[in-house]
Design brief:
By secondary structure, the protein is of the alpha/beta class. The chain folds into 2 domains: 201 residues; 62 residues. The chain has 9 helices and 6 strands; from the N terminus they run αααβββαβββααααα. The longest helix is centred in the C-terminal third of the chain and has 36 residues. The radius of gyration is 24 Å and the shape is globular.
Length: 275
Amino acid sequence: MTDETINAAIWEKLEISNDFIFGKVMQDPELCRKLLQRILPDLAIDHVEYPEAQKTIRPDVDAKSVRLDLYVIDGKGTVYDIEMQVAGAKDLPKRTRYYQSLIDMQMIDKGEPYRKLNPSYVIFICPFDLFGKGRHIYTFENVCREDKEISLEDGTAKIFLNALGDKDDVSAELKAFLDYVAGKKPKDPFVEELDDAVKKARKNREWRREYMTLLMRDQENIEKGMEIGAAQGIVETGLDCGLSEDDILSRLQIKLSLSYESAREYFEKFGKQTV
């Protein structure tokens, strides 16, 4: 079975929990609005503007850039970053901090007053319980440690949704969506809309081709990372054993099927680190 056949089979099984499919489906402004309304029922979200899938924010040449799954602004200027996070990661709280700071940088230019910073929400949808308390939703806002009744009121909130929650802590509508993320298909009008949108997305040839390209790039990056690690090991081991530069270059070429130029690049990179 070829890699192309395997990738095609993967595409046919993608669900809403895949960040690529999620981003494409949420390009529908009304579906996006309905989801936000379920997550934040106390807000009156009449419509969303400029839904932008996979928005990339590059603060400057030296800072870490990020690619947001979904960046949305509602009619009142409130900003929402919605992320579909399949794999568990302990750094998610720090990521929300960084994402929040980058979103703020998008709102105001140099010299503008801070009051122009609109409310913003960073929302992570997860098929796992990051905090292990069984809740479907964890909402974090800045409050005073000494007096919990005092809120900083800086207009920011970070929300973690857990599709595997077991508490009665969210509306039936939001639970139906989270159950859908977890792989269930409850009887719910919005979930049925989403499911139809996912099926339609999988039939989109342009999106399929785009996903295949991304998948191949990811696989190439993994293979490249393995090659880099192997090359570093060969160079460092060779130097530790007292091998000559020519011997190490030869080993790099033979073991990793590298050209002479590529082998020399690795030698110069890792040889300097070892000295």
